Amino acid sequence: MLSAAQAYAAPRRLRGILGESTSEALVMAVLSILEFPDPRLRTVAKPVSEVDDKLRQLADDLLETMYEASGIGLAATQVNIHRRILVMDVSETRDEPQVFINPEISVLDETLGGYDEGCLSVPGFYEEVQRPRRIRVRALGLDGETYEKELDGLAAVCLQHEIDHLDGKLFVDYISPLKRQRIRRKLEKAHRLRA
Ligand SMILES: [Zn+2]
Description:
By secondary structure, this protein is α+β, with helices and mostly antiparallel strands. Helix content is 25%, strand content 24%. It has helices spanning 53-68, 153-166, 177-194, and strands at 73-75, 85-88, 98-117, 127-140, 146-151. A 5-stranded antiparallel sheet has the order 1-2-3-4-5. It is globular and about 45 Å long. The model is unreliable at 4-25 (pLDDT under 50). The chain binds zinc ion. Zinc ion binds at residues 1, 119-121, 161, 165.
């Protein structure tokens, strides 16, 4: 997820903050991000069965890709890898990476709040989406252990947005068909010009 107000300059240094797997000489890669209306963004991701070095490498690559693009969240679906893992960093200092594997959320407060959401897969467009304000998430960490935490504010918005990606949903699904069609046409035109 990307928000104009949250698109901070991205630090390039990530090594060492993700645990032991990054202490070796590890090459991180910036992956290419699928853009709406690419049908691959509609794929429902499969649960991760094992947290191994390959998955930790993927987490590193997702973070590198997210920071490079000045995003605050990125789901594996967006780089055409259909497994249930996402990363985010909603800190202003851009040094608090979080990884969620097989995340499941429960809503703690049904009250909805609106936020102008953007998305690295829908570049340049922002629309208000209403979501529950407070959630609890249960997920696996990079050590393969289950953890739980409560989230509110931007972190809650971002996590719900990213989990939607794993389910093949995009924030534009919440807006009017007319607005969605307008965004689709503009992006399709941009893709044609780029090709
Ligand atoms: Zn997104």
